[in-house]
Amino acid sequence: MMRQYELVERVLSYDPEADEALLNRAYVYAMKAHKHQERANGDPYFSHPLEVAAIVTNLKLDDATVAAALLHDVIEDTDATRTEIDQLFGKEIGALVDGLTKIKRLDLVSKKAEQAENFRKLLVAISSDIRVLLVKLADRLHNMRTIEHKREASRKRTCQETLDIYAPLAGRMGMQAMRDELEDHAFRWLNPEAYETVTTKLEQLRAKNKRLVEEIRLALEVKLDDVGIESKVTGREKKSYSVWRKMQNKQVSLEKLSDIYGFRVTVNSVEDCYRVLGVIHTTWRQVPGRFKDYISTPKGNAYQSIHTTVLGPQSQRIELQIRTQQMHDIAEYGVAAHAIYKDAGSDNMDAERFDQDSGPYMWLRQLVETLLEGANSEEFLEHTKLELFQDQVFCFTPNGRLIALPRGATSVDFAYAVHTDIGNAAQGAYINGRQMPMDTRLRNGDEVRIVTAKTATPPAAWESVAVTGRARGAIRRAVRDKLRQQYSELGRRLVQSEFKKYGHDYSDDLVKEALPRMAAGSKSPDDVLASVARNEIQAVEVVKAALPGKDLVEPVQAYKPKSRYGRGRSQEGWFNLSKVMGLKFRFSAAGDSAQAAGASSIPLRGLRDDIPVKFADSGVVPGDRIVGVLTKEKGIRIFHIHSPELMAFEHEKWIDVTWDVDAANAERFPARIEVTALNAPGSLADIAQTIGETDGNIDQVQMVARKPDFTRMRIEVEVWDLDHLNHILNGLKAKGVVNSAERVFD
Questions:
Q1: Least confident range of 322-336, 556-570, 635-649
Q2: Is the CA virtual torsion 311, 314, 316, 321 positive or negative?
Q3: I need a surface site. Which of 182, 620, 651, 744 has the fewest CB within 10 A?
Q4: How would you class 169 by CB atoms within 10 Å of its CB: exposed for 0-12, middle for 13-18, buried for 19 or more?
Q5: What is the pLDDT of residues 485-540, one digit of tens each?
Q6: 76 catalytic residue (yes or no)
Q7: Given 19, 77, 114, 536, which residue is catalytic?
Q8: CA 103 to CA 100: how far, in whole Å?
Q9: Which residues pair with 263 in a beta bridge?
Q10: Taking the model in full, what pTM does it have?
């Protein structure tokens, strides 16, 4: 275990002005706080924060970060408090330690929810001070180095979390060396057989190709030295997990991978990078499609390098990375390297040295914005995993702004990457000047122009098209808000009608004042009204809560004469329910139409992704007189006015609805007809031919009764509207083999 003076000397070696007293106090305090605790392997627990601090010193971070590394578990695992840490070490270190402390006593139903909530808290802290992330990654790295002492279930959970979140997060922050080690540790325990196989193969290849690698390295050095370029050429080998992932993605054996070995050329300046590229491409033939310039267009995590592949001295493929030393440090240590280069030679090594406008920080801020807008922590965790991508495509706005997206991203993702409001208002996209579908996958260098409209809203189907968590989360929120708005508007009309029954005028203010008297969970009038539309609260309950103490007189019920035609039906037909209810709605079967059904109508689009609307089994078609019924389980069910099923519902739940079909987006609806035909060969074929010739579609045929002379059959047909159905019935009646044809509802 590292001694106190050794840790202080490590920090002083790269930061001579570091606060020795602070480091000594933090060392002693953490050691005393953890003195009675042990790790799973029997070591003193203090050995863990000490090793985390050692990893932080390898990143050459400031004294406050080293102190926070020593103290990172004291609030979570000992009796220490945030107030005590603030008093002894200052609020800066207190905030760092608090950001690294898991939330205790979470009243959550699952381990996943607890993981999500803790990660949510961590990212908020990281967005305020990136040093929280650096200590957290150092903490996770040491835990992974000693994970063999954990129980198997806990070990697998930690390894999976590392592979899903912390390793990609290290990569997203540009810390490739740490990402590689985290992935290899997780891979070793999650898939030990594959790990052993890949590791053994790499060792065999290393022994076999050792001489060849050295020959290529020397050939590169000699060639660059001949033209006067000072450089350092080193060979590199892919890590086990990286090799395994590539084998899985490309479905090839390890021997067929061409980039297990590569070479890195490190030079003194950006100009030398391009000179090296020129020398290499004029000496050896470049492999088409294998060139990437991340110097002129850096990755989102600030990574810079030139990648190219050439056919080397013995016609074998050679992968090369060309970069400066500073680029190399940033590629290996990411945000930690920024601390060194931001103010090179300065003694001030605090959080201000991290460039808050650089790519990784911009990504973090956007991620936290998504967090704050999200519905729940688990949804946020899902979105975060989607955002932790490595492979990217780079696209441009018409103004030349660079947008980095994951491979496979679409115009939908591009729109939301520009701004959430652009995504929500998007109607179409032009890619390189050509109008293309919104689900078109983007390629490197594409210029994308998003067409927007103020009235546009994202369809729910876009969620399956988007690949970024930012886009998916925004679409999900927009769809939820739209559905809630529609429920609220429907509920408002229902409550207005109920107020009118009792002789009072409705206002949102009355409902707002009644909120304390309403069911728990109603935070606004819109919540109450939406609950009414979902049949969770009766409209009359809202009236009574909004008008306490008022003498409410029950409205006179409409007279329902009894007759041979059945309950609630007269010889003249059914009563106009809009007169009984004092209310009229509009039902749209295929989207909103410009033609409204009345001043008090509400557009309902239940066949798509809005308020749930279901049709009765007996079927209804545009042109029918229809009635809607509010049901708690299924939203609104639509019945034909003559449907016997309608009688099962109280009239108070009936809503008068009328059709408002968009002719440009017509669709078929089911209806039942009963046909009595001669029992003769070919009669069924004649009936089917007649329905087909009149553009009807037969869904099902059932023989109801069969006699020597006649057969009665029930046919389920799909038609465009009532006129179309009547046209089919008239065509059937004109057939000689048909005795009768009529529509039925039972």
A1: 556-570
A2: negative
A3: 744
A4: buried
A5: 877 888 888 888 888 878 888 888 888 888 887 765 567 888 888 888 777 788 88
A6: yes
A7: 77
A8: 10
A9: 235, 320
A10: 0.55
